[in-house]
Amino acid sequence: MAIEDFFDHRCDIFHIKREDTSPGYALPPSPDFKYSPEPDLTDVECHFGVKSATIRIEQKDPQNEMDSDIKLTLPAGTDIRLHDKVVSKESGLEYTAGLPRNIRGHHIAVKIRRVSQQKPL
Of residues 60 and 112, which shows the higher confidence score? Predict the structure, then answer.
């Protein structure tokens, strides 16, 4: 079985971008991190390892909060970075990427995190 047969999902990847904005009143600019509206990489072959996921549900007011860590596998050479936003094409769910690991030049493994409400950083 080739590694290409393992990639049975598709995703879009958004790189996080830094913008220095000044609040005005002669104050120095402060960094602001945002995702671009258009994906930097579209329709990337991948595999969401949902069987290896860690899911937590915390009871809070006014609603319960759910977050999960999932292993994402990508082809070698895919440009994914720390804090990138990954959007699943099948479900439309958004995830935030952890530190990517190159596995012997064969593929890239990265832990992605899903929370009930996505926060850039």
Answer: 112
